[in-house]
Amino acid sequence: MTFSVNLTLCPFDSKDLNREYSGGSFLVSCSHCGAEWEVHNNLVLRVTDPNWEMAEQVTAIVSERIAEHLANSASTS
Ligand SMILES: [Zn+2]
What is the 55 CA–ligand 1 centroid distance (Å)? Predict the structure, then answer.
């Protein structure tokens, strides 16, 4: 079975998502921020909002890393 919807990483913190097949649909959940989705064929329904504090913390860390990476590549070239 192919997973037609591209929902393999959490859109909030880029963590791997857990997928459980149950009764014709997938329950997709992020163990990091707690967001959950129900996936029916191409339809994705968010059933639980993420813990925004957790998600925003990670987003801030990722932004810092991108900034560091850009600074490093700018200094080496
Ligand atoms: Zn998440």
Answer: 6
In the reported structure, the alpha carbon of residue 27 is separated from the centroid of ligand 1 by a whole-number distance in angstroms of: 14
Q: Compute the distance from residue 68 Cα to the ligand 1 centre, in Å.
A: 23
User: What distance in angstroms lies between residue 25's CA and the mean position of ligand 1's atoms?
Assistant: 20
5: left (phi over 0), alpha (psi -120 to 50) or beta: beta
Distance of CA 58 to the CA centre of its chain: 11
Nearest-Å Rg of the Cα atoms of the chain is 16
| CA–centroid distance, residue 12 to ligand 1 (Å) | 5
Residue 37 parent element (H or E):
strand 36-40
Per-residue pLDDT of the chain (77 residues; tens, 9 = 90+): 344 456 788 888 888 999 999 888 989 999 999 999 998 887 888 899 999 888 887 777 778 888 888 888 877 65
